[in-house]
Amino acid sequence: MHLGLSGLAGGFLFGTAFGIPAGGLLMIAQKLAGETLQEKRNRERREQYEQKLAEWQSRLSVTEDLGKMEGDARGQSQTENSRRI
Question: What family does the database annotate (predicted)?
């Protein structure tokens, strides 16, 4: 699509007329909220990572507990077998 020099100038003026106020409103909204979009995104990522880390650690502890219980059960069965003999 080719609009020529007048189309280029019109697009420039249109973009400037609506882009600058929209950017200003976005900056004002971020200042009122107390954090920028980048800070919010980083905070949410950190919270999600901490949640996943806690979940992984709880799963690991359950796995370790099952391993200990299995080892204890094997030890008891060997003791019982030696008593039977």
Answer: Belongs to the Tim17/Tim22/Tim23 family.
